[in-house]
Every structure is written in C-alpha cells, then in structure tokens.
C-alpha cells in the first residue's frame, strides 16, 4: 500500500473546511464520506501507521505504542477496570478482535427512545448496516479457522444445549494466527485504516500522524507533533470551518472538557458505558491447542440477562496469573499450555459512568458498578464456570476473583463466587467505552454538539447508549449515517460505499 498519510515536524499552520480529530472507527468513516463528497478534509491522528511490516514484535512494545496510556488506562471506582483503547491510523480497529455483530433490534429501539427518534427509520438504519457489513468484508468464521479454544467453547456450549454460533469477523484474509490484538501479522484484517482511509486520501483528505490535539476552540485546533520515538518534534495550529471530534469515547469528552466546552454543554462526558468483561480460565482434560481466530465463537444464551459469552484469546501470562502456581507447580501449569481454555462474559451494562478533565495525560474515568451489573457479572462468572466444568469436564478452573482458589466443581464455584460477592474482589476488563457524548443528551440528531454551530462528535461517544454486543459495526453504521446527513444538508452528492 503506498503511503497515504503524512508525518510532519516544525511549526505548522494548516487551513481546511473540516478537521477530523482521530482516525478510528468513527473518524475514518467520517473522513471517507466527507472527502468523497467534495469537502476539504484534514485528519489529525496522534498515533502512527502500522501494518505487518512495521508492527512492534513484542507484546510490551505493542501495548506501549498502539494502546492508549501504554495499556494502563483505568476507571476510578469500584472495582477499578482497565479500559483498553487503540492508538494509530485505524484507532482501536487496528488492534481489535474483528468481531462483528449487527445492532440488536432492542438496542436500536432503546436508542430511539433515549434520543427521541434519531434513527426513527429503522429499516434505513439496517439497510445502511447491510452495506457496511459488505464494505467491511464480514464473514462467518468457518470451522477450519476456529482455534482450539473456539472449538472447545463450541463443543461445551453445544453439550449444554446453549444458543451459540461462530463469530462473524472482518478478516477476509485471516491466516489464523490469533494475533488480532497486536495487529494482524499478514494484513488479513480489514480494519478501518485499510477499508476507508486510503479512499479518503485518494479523494484529497490530508491525513497527519503523530499530531496530538491539545486545545480546540470553535475555529481553531492546536497541539504538538510527535515522532515514533515519542519525542516532540513540532507544533501545529489548524484553522477550520467545521470540527469533527472522533477521539473515542474517552478521548473526545476529555478533549472537549480540557478545552473548556463543558461550560456551554454540561452533558459532555456523561452516560459512559464500558461493557465490562469478566473471564473464566480452564484447564481441560485433553489437549485442545490449535491455531485459529483470535475470538471465533460465542453463546448468546444469556443475553436477556445482559450476559454474552465469547471465547477469549489464550494468553499464557493471563493463565499464569489466574492460577496461584509458583515454582514447580508453575512449571507443571505451563506444561499444560495445550489444555488452556478461556471465555469472557461481556455485560451490557446499566451503570453509567463519566469522563472528566484529564490529569497530566491520564484520562479521568469515573465508573462504579451498580447493583444490577454486580449481579450480572456474578451470573457471567457462574455461566463461564459451568461452560468449562459441565460442558468440557475441566480439571480445574480459575475465577476472576481476588484471592480465590481454583475450583473443581460448581459447589466450589458458588462458594467462591456467592451472590453477595463484593465488587472490590472482582477482576474486570473493558475495551468498549461508548456513549459518553450522546446523541439525545450532548448532541443533536446530526451529531452536532448542542450549544455550538460547527462542532460535531462522530465516534463511539455519539451512540445514544451501549450496543450490548461488540460495537464496531454499530459505530461504522451510525457515523456513516451522520456523515451522510452532514453532506445532504449542504447539498453534496454522496459517493456510495461500492463504486
Ligand atoms: C483490544 C480491543 C479489542 C476490541 N475488539 C473488538 C471487536 O472484536 N469487535 C468490535 O466490534 N469492537 C472491538 N473493540 C472496540 C472497537 O474497536 C471500538 O469500539 C471502536 O474502534 C471505537 O471507535 P472510535 O472511533 O470511537 O474510537 P477509536 O477507534 O478508539 O479511535 C480513536 C482515535 O482517536 C485518536 N485520538 C485520541 N485522542 C487524540 C488526540 N488528542 N489527538 C489526536 N488523536 C487522538 C486515537 O489515537 C485513536 O486512533 C475492541 C477494542 C479494543 C481496544
């Protein structure tokens, strides 16, 4: 792929019709739609371009370069939960697991209730989503591409008679290396940097990497320029008629508030959902290891209780931490590498947190799980445990609970994870921050920031609430619709996704 982005240094001044801050799921989709419609577009991305040729080789380096806050971005509240986010052209899609789900019908209805009909034409929404589905080259993971963990997950859910399926993914060239979260090693994933950004650049968009936005006023954006070694090598000032903020559900409200815009709009940063995930790790009797997709199988048996089970990436380090094994017993555990299985229970959270003004580059995320979500997480632990103990006859399982011992039966699980288990003992994780600058609260139906005539938000923050499934397809769809509305209102022709 020829270079479509620019790396600059020194003191830069730029002028454009539209500036888009962030090049992830939302920013890239907006950039392609608007530049193809004829607008002069500049994209400012704090991270860099990565592909299989220049991607970091080690996990530590990957997290230190392509993850927000070096992988340490965490909520403050009970329990503290790490919130992963990607950094680079493509944003979080660069390092996501490529899982694709349609927006559930009840989610879209809820969005319409909460936003007073922002997507009232539900058929049109799903028609657009079908186009996005094809554009992102989404396919069901074939059995031959399921990893050993996926297959064990599938056998276990089938044995238990749970509703299940192979996950759909936007990985048309998947080689089954299971490394999606550290960038696809053969460019087999159709992340948004591949799908949309080259088209945006071809239509004239100027895409700058290493540009960290610090301050935005209504017509001006300012920040500094980094090189790949994270050294400051310049500054920039950009003058634009329209600002589109797409820095993600943590970055967007952080930036707007750090620039003082919360004085005019007190809904910025309010209503954050994060889809907390809780893992259950198992050692199963027979070796199951075989390479395959990062996450290829799910069960939505418990979605009415807001719990979605998905086979999780197998990371040896995670197992080593989950089972209290040291010295010789640690060695024995690692010799069982081929027997390791893992599931994650993703919760469609009712809890709403908030994003405040960052402190020294660290996001301020307040989020304390409410009682209903505490119960949903415990259900997720119980169902993950049942999946492995009863569905796969696991020898032992480890629970995501501080201080708990491995369990060999459901009786032990119910003792280790009683219904009154306190939040502070739960070990959660999140990679789906959403709805922190919502249509229906902070934004109008077009994504325009209330109180302003020319500032828009077009990323996961804009969603009127959470999705309840892995959200990227819902984000692409929503932002394509918002960007098309922007063009229509200005009399511009929209170039179809397929030309
Ligand atoms: C590890 C991981 C796995 C995931 N797996 C899946 C999955 O399998 N399926 C799924 O549907 N979803 C998945 N997600 C979530 C999905 O990728 C995100 O919901 C989606 O990408 C969010 O889109 P966004 O545009 O809001 O933000 P992002 O895609 O995160 O993009 C925001 C961009 O803004 C840039 N930015 C932030 N601040 C600034 C600033 N001040 N100046 C300049 N640039 C800035 C960031 O560097 C980033 O590139 C995963 C996420 C992660 C982190």
Describe the structure in brief.
The chain has 13 helices and 20 strands. The chain has helices at 25-36, 59-66, 105-115, 122-135, 148-160, 192-195, 197-202, 248-258, 316-322, 327-335, 371-389, 410-416, 472-489; strands at 6-7, 10-21, 41-45, 99-100, 139-140, 164-166, 168-169, 206-209, 211-216, 220-226, 232-245, 270-272, 277-283, 297-299, 307-311, 340-347, 353-355, 365-366, 396-398, 455-457.
Describe this structure in words.
- By secondary structure, the protein is of the alpha+beta class.
- The protein folds into two domains: 286 residues, FAD/NAD(P)-binding domain; 177 residues.
- Helices cover 28% and strands 19% of the residues.
- The protein contains 13 helices and 20 strands.
- The strands form four sheets. Strands 1, 2, 3, 8, 9, 10, 11 and 20 form an eight-stranded mixed sheet that branches. Strands 6-14-15-16-13-19 form a six-stranded antiparallel sheet, with helices on both faces. Strands 4-7-5 form a three-stranded antiparallel sheet, with no helix packed on it.
- Helix 1 packs parallel to helix 13 and helix 4 packs across helix 13.
- The longest helix is centred in the C-terminal third of the chain and has 19 residues.
- It is globular and about 65 Å long.
- The two termini are 20 Å apart.
- The mean pLDDT is 96.
């Amino acid at each position: 792929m020829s270079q479509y982005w620019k790396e600059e240094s020194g003191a830069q001044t730029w002028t454009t019709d539209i500036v888009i801050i962030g090049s992830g799921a939302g920013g890239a989709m907006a950039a392609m739609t608007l530049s193809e419609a004829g607008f002069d577009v500049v994209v400012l991305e704090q991270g860099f371009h990565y592909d299989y040729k220049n991607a970091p080789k080690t996990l530590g380096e990957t997290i230190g370069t392509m993850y927000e806050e070096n992988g340490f971005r965490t909520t403050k509240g009970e329990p503290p939960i790490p919130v992963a986010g990607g950094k680079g052209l493509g944003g979080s899609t660069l390092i996501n697991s490529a899982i694709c789900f349609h927006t559930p019908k009840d989610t879209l209805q809820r969005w319409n209730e909460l936003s007073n009909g922002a997507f009232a034409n539900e058929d049109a929404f799903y028609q657009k989503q079908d186009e996005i589905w094809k554009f992102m080259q989404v396919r069901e993971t074939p059995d031959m591409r399921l990893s050993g963990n996926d297959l064990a997950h599938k056998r276990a859910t089938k044995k238990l008679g749970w509703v299940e399926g192979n996950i759909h993914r936007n990985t048309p060239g998947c080689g089954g290396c299971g490394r999606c979260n550290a960038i696809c090693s053969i460019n087999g994933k159709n992340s948004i940097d591949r799908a949309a950004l080259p088209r945006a650049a071809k239509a004239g968009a100027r895409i700058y990497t290493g540009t960290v936005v610090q301050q935005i006023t209504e017509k001006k954006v300012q920040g500094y320029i980094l090189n790949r070694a994270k050294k400051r090598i310049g500054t920039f000032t950009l003058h634009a008629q329209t600002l589109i903020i797409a820095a993600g559900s943590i970055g967007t409200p952080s930036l707007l508030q750090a620039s003082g815009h919360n004085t005019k709009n007190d809904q910025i940063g309010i209503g954050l959902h994060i889809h907390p995930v809780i893992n259950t790790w198992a050692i199963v009797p027979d070796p199951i290891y075989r390479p395959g997709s990062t996450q290829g199988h799910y069960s939505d048996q418990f979605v009415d209780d807001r719990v979605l089970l998905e086979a999780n990436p197998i990371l040896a380090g995670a197992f080593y931490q989950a089972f209290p094994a040291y010295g010789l017993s640690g060695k024995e555990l690692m010799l069982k590498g081929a027997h390791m299985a893992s599931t994650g229970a993703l919760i469609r959270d009712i809890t709403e947190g908030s994003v405040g003004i960052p402190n020294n580059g660290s996001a301020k995320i307040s989020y304390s799980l409410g009682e209903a979500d505490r119960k949903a997480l415990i259900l997720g632990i119980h169902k993950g445990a049942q999946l492995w103990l009863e569905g796969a006859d696991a020898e032992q399982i480890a629970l995501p609970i501080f201080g708990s011992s491995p369990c060999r039966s459901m009786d032990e699980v119910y003792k280790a994870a009683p219904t009154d288990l306190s939040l502070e003992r739960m070990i959660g994780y999140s990679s789906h921050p959403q709805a922190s600058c919502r249509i229906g609260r902070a934004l109008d139906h077009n994504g325009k920031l209330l109180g302003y005539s020319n500032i828009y938000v077009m990323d996961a923050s804009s969603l009127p609430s959470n999705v309840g499934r892995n959200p990227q397809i819902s984000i692409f769809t929503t932002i394509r619709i918002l960007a098309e509305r922007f063009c229509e209102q200005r009399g511009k022709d929209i170039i179809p996704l397929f030309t």
